[in-house]
């Protein structure tokens, strides 16, 4: 059974960095698209970025371009989200999700399995 587990969230000061991990099991990571989504307090969940099986990253939030980087290590069955220059508006619960077959998309319904989420709080 496919499973995703996020880790790496926490409290960070504005301007700081965090690296989130999404560790996969039960499916072939290298053949799958992985998306990162986030849900800020009082807001709907939104797609942030996605990495395709060809390691092409697609951004869905302009505000994170140049600050967020996504990459995978298939040998560790893990996808990483590196977040730099964090801002208070990045505060949210972050979720990774896998689309087993198909290209990256921001549509949540297209993803087959989700992690439980990890909380990121950016505050001084």
Question: Overview of this structure, please?
Answer:
The structure is a single chain. β4 (33-39) and β5 form a beta hairpin. The strands form two sheets. Strands 2, 4, 5, 6, 9, 10 and 11 form a seven-stranded mixed beta sheet that branches. A four-stranded antiparallel beta sheet has the order 1-3-8-7, with no helix packed on it. It starts with a strand and ends with a strand. Helices cover 0% and strands 48% of the residues. The protein has strands at residues 3-7, 10-12, 18-25, 33-39, 46-51, 57-59, 68-73, 78-83, 92-99, 113-114, 118-122. The chain is globular. By secondary structure, it is mostly beta strands. The chain is built from no helices and eleven strands.
**Mean of residue pLDDT values:** 96
Structural class: mainly beta
Give the CA-based shape: globular
What's the main sheet like?
A: 7 strands, mixed
Helix content percent band: under 10%
Give the low-confidence spans: none
Number of strands: 11
The number of helical elements comes to 0
Radius of gyration, in Å, reads 13 Å
> How far do the termini sit from each other?
40 Å
The portion of residues forming beta strands comes to over 45%
């Amino acid at each position: 059974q496919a499973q995703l587990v996020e880790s790496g969230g926490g409290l960070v000061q504005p301007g700081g960095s965090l690296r989130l991990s999404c560790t996969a099991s039960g499916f072939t990571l290298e053949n799958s698209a992985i998306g990162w989504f986030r849900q800020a307090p009082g807001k709907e969940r939104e797609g942030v970025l996605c990495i395709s099986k060809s390691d092409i990253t697609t951004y869905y939030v302009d505000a994170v371009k140049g600050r967020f980087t996504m990459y995978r290590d298939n040998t560790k069955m893990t996808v990483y989200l590196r977040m730099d220059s964090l801002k208070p508006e990045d505060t949210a619960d972050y979720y990774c999700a896998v689309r087993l077959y198909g290209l990256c998309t921001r549509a949540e319904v297209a993803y087959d399995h989700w992690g439980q989420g990890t909380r990121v709080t950016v505050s001084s």
